[in-house]
Structure formats: C-alpha cells, structure tokens
Amino acid sequence: MDTHPNQWLSERIKAWGHELGFQQVGITDTDLTTAEGRLMEWIASGRHGDMEYMARHGTKRSRPAELVPGTLRVISVRMDYLPETPETTRQILADSATAFISRYALGRDYHKLIRRRLQHLAERIQDAIAPTACRVFVDSAPVLEKPLAEKAGLGWMGKHTNLINSQAGSWFFLGEIYTDLALPIDHSQGSHCGRCQACIDICPTQAIIAPYQLDARRCVSYLTIEHQGGIPEALRPLIGNRIYGCDDCQLVCPWNRFAQPTRETDFLPRAGLDTVTLIELFGWDEATFLKRTEGSAIRRIGHLRWLRNIAVALGNAGSAPEVSATLRVHASHPSALVREHVAWALDRQGLT
Q: GO molecular-function annotation terms (predicted)?
C-alpha cells in the first residue's frame, strides 16, 4: 500500500499534540453533508431555542471552506477535564442545599487554555511546512466540532448528542485547527451505544426526545446558561439544585467508567465552587460574583441569570427558615427577572 506523502507530518502533528497536553489528535476532511442536514432540521424545528447564532452563519458552520477559504483538512483535538470521581459528583447532586455546577465549569475557562495550546501546535506545523494556513478554533466561531471530531476518530455521537470515546468516556473538551494541508485522514470509530438508553432515561427534564435528538428548550444546560429569559415554570421543579449546566447524562453513561482524572490543574475546582451552598452563593452581590468567577466560564451568564438560577434551586431545596430568609433578601430586587423567580421559589416553599 502506498504511503500518503504527508503521513510523516500527520504522525508528527499527533506527537506534538500529545506533548502539548492533548489526549488525542485526529484529522478529517471537510465533508459534513450528513451533519448539515441534521443541523438544518434541528433549527427548522425550533429546538435550538434562543440560540439564534446557530442559524446566523448559514452553511459556514457545516462547510469549513466557506468559513476559512482553502480549508482541506480539520485537525481535531481532545483534552480531558474530569476533576473528581463520579461518586463525589453524585453526592453533590443529591444534596439539595449544595449548588451543583457542571463539572467542566469548576476550574478556569477552558477556551483560553486550549486555544493557547492549539496555537502552539499550529505554529509547530507552520515551522515544519511553510507557508501553510492554520486557523485555530475553540467554541469561537461557527464550527460543528462534534461531527468533525467524530469523523476524525475521536469518538462517536452518543444518544445524548455528546461525543463518547471508547477509552475515555465523554468528560473532555474539543478544539480544531482548519488547515490547507492535504493530510491523510483518520477513520471514525462507529457508534457503540447499542440498546443502552440510560442517558435518555436519566435526563431530569426529558430533553433527549429520542435517540440522538436533543430539544435544547428543555435542556437544563440551555436553560441555566444560554437562555436569557424566564425559565418555564413547568421545568423549574425538575432542575433541582443545578444552577449552571447538568451532567446527569454523562454520570450514567457506562463508557465513562474509562474516564481518567484530568492532568490539567487549571481544570480543578476553584473558589470552593464544588461544595458551596446555595445560600452562600445567593448572598454574592455583583462585585463578589465578578471577583469569584474571574477566569471562569460561569461569568458569561452574568449576575442576574446567576441569581435567577439559584432562586429556582432554593425553591427546590428543603423548607428551612434560612432558605426563606435568604430568598426574601431579593424579593424586591431591581430586576424583574430575579423578582419573578424569587416569588416562584417562595411560593414553592409555601411562603407567600
């Protein structure tokens, strides 16, 4: 069998990626025809909710060469972030007085760290083959990162629509380099979910409406992070103590028994956010919120949505004098969004 002329470079890219802290590096072409059809159907059905940016760029998201002209290949990378054992995570989730934050957001914001490492990788490639075009992305542009990673052999799309790797589970971040290099491509793993539907069954709001189909409008991660308005009342009791994201579908996935703890200290919990109580967090004014979430992905939702989310969680907490007292502090908050959710929480606690 003939060896691809750039096979040597592909091997070096993967070795450099591992040196830079990526657990896996894969390479794929730019054909996302199947994924594009699914994306368009998802948007047409309105399941993207308020995320109008998913439709804003037309086909640039699913056609890499339209976003970056000349793109022939996409280098996809994986970096593991699991900060603690699943047992610890389950204990926090089961304690209604403690705030549950999706484990990816407990440490420093991953965007800058992965982007910096990817830029180093791109520079190594350019030093080896000059001139060549390399553009780095980490959730920073219209990119279909999961379908690209799937094609690059980093895993398969699970029924919860997250990527799963047979040797590492799903607790990982993704990043991409768009390049004009004609590199040899890797092959996809193929799906290994079988008949399992643990993720579908566990979803607290039943947002996974069918295998491989997510209605974001019901998803706790969407409701607590992306959605800017009021959280639908029917879904509030189902959110429990989840104030930023949701990890339930990952916690029950049997493939995550192979997940390894992160090697990156930046992804470890900061500011005590892994064990903090709802009452303490509800007491943060905006200045405290900004200070304690500096360098964190959490800051992007702003203080008002932060209070909105915590109010819902307090409404779901067990009745106690300190809970009602904490809620009443913000009963006359200047923001109608906050006031409305506090009023709901007080009513749910039987205090109106």
A: 4 iron, 4 sulfur cluster binding; cobalamin binding; epoxyqueuosine reductase activity; metal ion binding
